[in-house]
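Hi R.,

As promised on Friday, here is the backbone we talked about, encoded as structure tokens. Could you run it through your design pipeline when you get a chance and send me back a sequence?
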């Protein structure tokens, strides 16, 4: 079984990012399993903790180590990645030389409730993942706009064309994982 860690950049219960992630998790083929990795309980990263990390860091790093690839689904906050997601990247990247992100294939979906679709967050995240040595799906890029119109009351994506597009994205991610 290939495990896909799913990291959502919003802590909101009704988060569109999470609802979109729930939809995308179902598009992986047989033999793939999505595991949501929670990031809201991680204390703010402090380098002083490197020698004696809080329990939350230890179990988070173990969980990320145990997955084969990571899907990030995130909103944009102030033209960048939400702090909670950046914090998770930082926690996973240390102690120096022991990054749990290293070499794991990754894929990014950004979304927003406007037409902008999280372009800034998508590319700032891409920049960090490049440094973290994570091969990232290049094409198709996924920027989802007007999420409030895309997700129905039951949390399902209501537009077949978007589902097909997301399927092609998942297929590209699976190809990337298989090449590693
Ligand atoms: C936003 N939002 C937002 N949208 C956008 O397109 N560009 C931006 O820079 C921002 N900045 C921003 C900052 C903060 C602090 C908040 C709370 C919101 C709006 C954002 O796209 C919208 O709230 C999404 O619905 C958040 O995603 P979730 O929580 O639904 O996953």
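Update: got your reply. Pasting your designed sequence below so it's all in one thread:
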């Amino acid at each position: 079984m290939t495990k896909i860690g799913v990291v959502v950049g919003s802590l909101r219960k009704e988060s569109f990012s999470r609802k979109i992630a729930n939809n995308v998790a179902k598009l992986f083929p047989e033999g793939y399993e999505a595991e949501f990795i929670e990031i809201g309980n991680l204390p703010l990263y402090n380098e002083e903790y490197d020698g004696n990390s809080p329990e939350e860091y230890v179990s988070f790093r173990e969980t990320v180590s145990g997955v084969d690839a990571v899907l990030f689904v995130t909103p944009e906050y102030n033209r960048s990645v939400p702090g909670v997601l950046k914090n998770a990247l930082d926690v996973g990247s240390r102690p120096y030389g022991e990054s749990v992100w290293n070499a794991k294939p990754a894929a990014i979906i950004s979304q927003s409730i406007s037409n902008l679709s999280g372009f800034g967050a998508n590319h700032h995240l891409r920049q960090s993942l490049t440094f973290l040595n994570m091969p990232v799906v290049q094409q198709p890029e996924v920027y989802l706009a007007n999420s409030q119109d895309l997700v129905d009351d039951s949390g399902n994506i209501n537009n077949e064309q978007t589902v097909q597009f997301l399927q092609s994205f998942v297929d590209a991610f699976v190809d990337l994982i298989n090449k590693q």
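One thing I noticed while checking it: The chain has one domain: 2-179.

Thanks again,
M.
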